[in-house]
C-alpha cells in the first residue's frame, strides 16, 4: 500500500488529491478498469514498446499515465491493459530515466501541450471550489467543527 513519505513530501502532500485503489493485493487491473469506466485512456510509459513520442500523444480525451518502478518497469498486466504507449526520446546508452525524472519530463511537456491547445481541459468553477474545500479540510484542525460553525452562522 502506498504511503506518503513525510521526509520526501515535506508537507506538500496536503496539496495532492490521491485516490487509492488498494482493496486487493494485485490491484493494477482493478485500477485500470475503474479509470477506463470513468472515460480515461490508459497510456503506459515505457522505452520498450513502439510508443508514440510525447508530441504525438492525443490529449483530446482524459488520459491516465502509468509509470513503472525503476527496477522492473511496468507489470505485464499494465502493459497488456494499456490503450497506448508513450516514450521519452533518449540519446546515448542509457535506457531510461529514473521515475521522478520521467514523470517530471512527461508532465511538463504534456502540460505545455494542453496550455497551447484548444482542448477543454480546465476545471469548472464548481470543481475548483470542491478541490479548494478538500485542501482546506486537509490543513485545518477539526474541519468538521469549523464547517458546522460556519454553516450554523450562515443560517442565522
Describe this structure in a few short sentences.
The protein has 156 residues and is α/β, with parallel strands linked by helices. Helices cover 42% and strands 10% of the residues.
User: Architecture of the largest domain, according to CATH?
Assistant: 3-Layer(aba) Sandwich
| Category from helices, strands and their pairing | alpha/beta
Summed over residues and divided by their number, the pLDDT gives a mean of 85
In percent terms, what proportion of residues is strand?
5-15%
Query: What integer value in Å does the Rg equal?
Result: 19 Å
Order of helices and strands: HHEEEHEHHH
Query: What number of structural domains do the residues give?
Result: 2
**What is the distance, rounded to the nearest whole angstrom, between the alpha carbons of the first and last residues?**
45 Å
For the sheet with most strands, the description reads: 4 strands, parallel
Helix coverage percent of residues? 40-55%
CATH class of the largest domain: Alpha Beta
The CATH homologous superfamily of the largest domain is termed SPOUT methyltransferase, trefoil knot domain
Question: Uncertain spans, ≥5 residues at pLDDT below 50?
Answer: none
Extended strand count: 4
Shape: globular
Q: Which topology of the largest domain does CATH recognise?
A: Alpha/beta knot
Main sheet: strand order: 2-4-1-3
Please count the helical segments: 6
Note the main attributes of this structure.
globular, four-stranded parallel β-sheet, 42% helix, 156 residues, alpha/beta, Alpha/beta knot
